[in-house]
Amino acid sequence: MSGQMADLIVIDDVEWAIAEPVPGVLFDPRDHGVHPVMMHTANTRGALARFRIDNGRLLLSDLQVGADEQPASINGVEPTTDEHGTIWTYLDVDLAIEWTGDLLAGADPIPDLYVHAGIPSVHHYEQVLALDIEAGQVVGTEDRTEAVAQYRASDDDDEGAFERLLRSIRMRLPGADNDV
Fold first, then answer.
1. Which helix (H) or strand (E) holds 18?
2. pLDDT tens across 91-126, in order?
3. pLDDT tens column, 137-147
């Protein structure tokens, strides 16, 4: 299996890979009548989303899906296709996403940490940003680059070390009143 393509989010003109959304995915095309099929080995889930933050609001800006026939419109936007008719692209969707949770995003992937399966984890990026999102509105952001760099530099091979890192850099702490 190939390394998988992560969904993206643009914040202040910087493109970040979405590494750890909790809970689950930000957008499921199936909720909009679109049923993706595998696009290629680097995208077995069949969809690739690009989000952006606009005035503190989480929006789906673009989407690519694999489909054997033209999928439904999303937010009034009809998809266009490639020359093979199997990858469909929605541009300028501008759909407000009402998601609530923690989002960890990474920029500047570290080539030596490339994984050949799955979506790269947050510690595979030079820059790490944590976002706290409530009903689609960003209510907090914090730079977590230093904490993740310290984790990479440590010799901690304890099985729970990575989970402790994730708990320490998320904005919403598990077990707290705002747990999602």
1. strand 14-22
2. 999 999 999 999 999 988 777 766 666 666 777 788
3. 999 999 988 88
Contact 64, 47 (CB under 8 A): yes
* pTM of the complete model: 0.81
User: 100 is in which domain, residue-wise?
Assistant: 1-175
Q: Considering Cα of 175, then 107, then 50, then 59, what sign does the dihedral take?
A: positive
- Tokens encoding 139: 């209510």
Rounded CA-CA distance 175/162 in Å is 18
- In angstroms, rounded to a whole number, what is the distance separating the alpha carbons of residues 56 and 36? 29
Tell me how far apart the alpha carbons of residues 58 and 45 are, in angstroms, rounded to a whole number: 22
Q: Answer whether residue 180 is part of any domain.
A: no
User: Per the structure, how many domains does the chain have?
Assistant: 1
Q: Are 64 and 37 in contact (CB under 8 A)?
A: no
